[in-house]
Amino acid sequence: MKDYFEVSDIFSKASPVYDDKISQNKTNLIIRDIEVNTLEHYIKEFNGNLDRILEIGCGTGQEALRIMKKFDIGVDCIDISNGMLKISVNKIKNHGLSDKFRPMRLAASNLDVLKRRYKIVYSFNGALNTEPQFKKFIKSIESVLDDEGVLIFSIRNRYCISDFIYSMLKFNGRRIKERIKGDVQVPVAEFFVESRYFSYNEILNLFNSDFKLIRAYGLGIIIFPYISNFFPNGFFDNFMGKLEKSLSKVFPFNMLGDEILYVFKKR
User: Fold this and answer.
1) Which segments within 26-140 are labelled E, that is strand?
2) What is the structure's pLDDT at 2?
3) Whole-angstrom Cα distance, residue 102 to residue 78?
4) Cα atoms in the 13 Å half-sphere on the side-chain side of 141
């Protein structure tokens, strides 16, 4: 796994075109909707009893922007990439929401330096797959998550049914082996970042001692992002988009997406 400097450098180089690349991929947009809708559900569960929430790996601030526009809460955002943080600051400023937004350059494994607790901590789009010290991150979460709080994060999965079918049709056994092994070079705009993939059972074992699973959603089950642009736009706008969202909650499909969205609470 690359160190923080290398990961930060790759994301900073990709930051000027990152939003365009995401918005051009229909599967990524479906994934983002499921993630943000899930976050909104838990925000509503606190019935206005929230002042700030924490985002880990905020990137260009797109998810934070959606939340701050819809709810009267602030978002503290951390990321290790200066390039991503600069874009997020300008984006939030252009929408007149700077008073709600607190960006910080910080690794996910060092959350204890924040010296405060949050009722909601979230991280989307596989940001945690690039965290070099994942076990340390799990320990650091305990220092910032309220005892009654909710941890929501998506992470890329070792077992993706649509990737496996695609790879078999292409006679690409190497791609399947790489994914199952878990060490994958993930495209970020025009660059690649070294990432660690985790299976459903791996995540449960890693979090089991201090957290209990509330829900898991499969993301990118039928069409994973890599092949999304091979299909016409209308294909996603109708049947396929609805099918993806429906299957995301259904066993065993919720364990077989390109990513899995987890919701945990402290034990």
Assistant:
1) 52-56, 74-79, 101-105, 118-123
2) 57
3) 8
4) 26
Pairing of the two strands 191-196 and 259-266: unpaired
Q: CB of 45 within 8 A of CB of 113?
A: no
Q: Treating both helix axes as pointing N-terminal to C-terminal, what angle do 161-169 and 173-181 enclose, rounded to 10 degrees?
A: 150
Torsions phi, psi for 54 (to 5 deg): -115, 130
- Mapped onto helix, strand or coil, the DSSP state of residue 58 is coil
Which of 86-100, 180-194, 250-264 is the least confident region?
180-194
Which of the four pLDDT bands, split at 50, 70 and 90, describes residue 236? low
Residues 72 and 99: their CA atoms lie apart, in Å, by 11
Strands 145-156 and 259-266, by their bridges, are antiparallel
CB-CB contact of 58 with 64 (8 Å): yes
Structural class in CATH, domain 4-266: alpha beta
What is the Cα–Cα distance from 107 to 81, expressed in whole angstroms? 9
- Amino acid letter for position 169: L
pLDDT tens digits, 199-234: 999 999 999 999 999 999 999 999 999 888 787 767
